[in-house]
Design goal:
single chain, mainly alpha, de novo design (two linked rop proteins)
Length: about 120
């Protein structure tokens, strides 16, 4: 592994953050800076925390800490998607929720791997 860009969890998080960004552009103008801004930040935070953790990979506990932050941001993003769907009925929210559920499982598995197997 030469870069954080080689991590599947990073690739998925990046791709989904782009999808979330496009989704929020469909929201009414009054939501662009409320709900839209919040979900854009939480979705981008997932990938950013993976990157920051990878940057600290020499220190296993720091790596794990930032992966846990990424997972927490993922849960926030899921909550935001649920709210947007319930208010605005954007069907794309359901697809993204499923994708984030899968990413959450992959991220959890990766956290477990780093905790047990990662060598500094």
């Amino acid at each position: 592994m030469k870069s954080y860009k080689d991590l599947d969890v990073y690739k998925l998080a990046f791709s989904y953050a782009v999808e979330v960004h496009h989704l929020t552009m469909q929201l009414p103008k009054y939501e662009l800076y409320e709900q839209g801004s919040q979900i854009r930040r939480s979705s981008k935070s997932i990938k950013d925390n993976i990157v920051e953790g990878y940057g600290r990979r020499k220190y296993k506990q720091d790596f794990v800490k930032f992966l846990i932050y990424a997972h927490a941001s993922l849960l926030e993003c899921l909550s935001q998607l649920e709210m947007i769907y319930n208010i605005h009925k954007l069907e794309a929210c359901n697809d993204l929720q499923k994708k984030y559920d899968i990413l959450g499982a992959k991220l959890f598995t990766f956290i477990t791997y780093v905790e047990r197997e990662w060598r500094t």
